[in-house]
């Protein structure tokens, strides 16, 4: 079977020959050492090629949406001049079903009264705001997080500026144990039901959707799982 990349193959062969020469010149009598047997490549197998396409979409995971935040101005189109506390209060005012007296996050509304200007305060649910260019337009976006009471969740929001308006481009509530900004992506870490594992969800900017969209969901091992079973007693120990 002819090689698909003869030029690349020649380069690799030349590099191997050069490496062998260098190793021999250094006085290593053993020369090159094999790394062991290489597993045989197995091509993907397509199952059920005649399967009819589904009539409805898959699990309705949030695919990304954007909405203008009412009541918030952006002085000089500088998102750093927007008060994060005012942004959260604007969301609360616009969503009485969730933040009202009978809503799932009603206690958050009460605790927001303890937030000082720009955030801060012993009982303030607002977390430290972060600024980074997540859309690639050369301007910073605002990433906000605030605790949702009485549930054990955290609200994650990302905002940008479009046509002198503050626009929310990511809206996610989850049981969050960590958030990372990696390049222009937002990575959310959440606890899994199995000890020693966690979920990692990645959101990235989509210029067509004009929003941060869900791009990857992983179930990853983070450490050694702890067994709930009580170990058997050891003879001679109490």
Summarize the structure.
This protein has a domain at 67-221. It is 17% helix and 30% strand. The protein is built from four helices and nine strands; from the N terminus they run αβαααββββββββ.
How many helical elements?
Answer: 4
- Note poorly predicted spans: 1-23, 228-238
Strand arrangement, largest sheet?
Answer: 1-5-4-3-2
Number of strand segments = 9
Q: Rough shape?
A: elongated
Radius of gyration: 27 Å
- The overall pLDDT average reads 82
Largest sheet, in brief, is:
5 strands, antiparallel
Class inferred from helices and paired strands: alpha+beta
Proportion in β-strands = 25-35%
Q: What percent of residues adopt helix (DSSP H or I)?
A: 10-25%
Amino-to-carboxy terminus distance:
69 Å
- What is the N-to-C order of secondary-structure elements (H for helix, E for strand)? HEHHHEEEEEEEE
What would your notes on this structure say?
It is a single chain. The chain has about 240 residues and is of the alpha+beta class. The protein has a domain at about 65-220. It is built from 4 helices and 9 strands; from the N terminus they run H-E-H-H-H-E-E-E-E-E-E-E-E. The protein has helices spanning about 5-25, 85-95, 95-100, 105-110, and strands at about 65-75, 130, 140-150, 155-160, 165-175, 180, 185-190, 195-205, 210-220. It has a 5-stranded antiparallel sheet, covered by helices on one side. Strand 2 and strand 3 (about 140-150) form a beta hairpin. It is elongated, with a radius of gyration of 27 Å. The chain starts with 5 loop residues before the first helix and ends in a 17-residue tail after the last strand. Residues about 1-25 and about 230-238 have low confidence and may be disordered.
């Amino acid at each position: 079977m002819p090689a698909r990349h003869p030029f690349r193959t020649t380069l690799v062969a030349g590099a191997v020959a050069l490496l062998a020469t260098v190793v021999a010149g250094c006085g290593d009598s053993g020369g090159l050492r094999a790394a062991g047997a290489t597993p045989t490549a197995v091509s993907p197998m397509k199952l059920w090629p005649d399967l009819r396409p589904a009539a409805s979409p898959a699990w309705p995971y949030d695919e990304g949406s954007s909405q203008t935040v009412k009541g918030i101005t952006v002085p000089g189109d500088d998102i750093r001049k927007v008060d994060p506390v005012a942004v959260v209060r604007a969301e609360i005012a616009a969503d009485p079903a969730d933040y009202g007296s009978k809503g799932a996050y009603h206690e958050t509304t009460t605790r927001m009264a303890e937030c000082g200007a720009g955030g801060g305060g012993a009982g303030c649910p607002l977390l430290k705001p972060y600024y980074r260019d997540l859309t690639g337009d050369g301007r910073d976006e605002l990433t906000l997080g605030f605790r949702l009471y009485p549930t054990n969740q955290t609200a994650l929001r990302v905002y940008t500026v479009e046509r002198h308006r503050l626009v929310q481009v990511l809206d996610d509530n989850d049981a969050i144990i960590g958030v990372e900004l990696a390049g222009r992506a937002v990575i959310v870490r959440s606890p899994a039901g199995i000890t020693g594992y966690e979920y990692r969800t990645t959101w990235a900017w989509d210029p067509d959707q004009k929003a941060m969209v869900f791009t990857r969901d992983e179930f990853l091992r983070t450490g050694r799982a702890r067994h709930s079973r009580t170990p058997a007693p050891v003879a001679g120990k109490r």
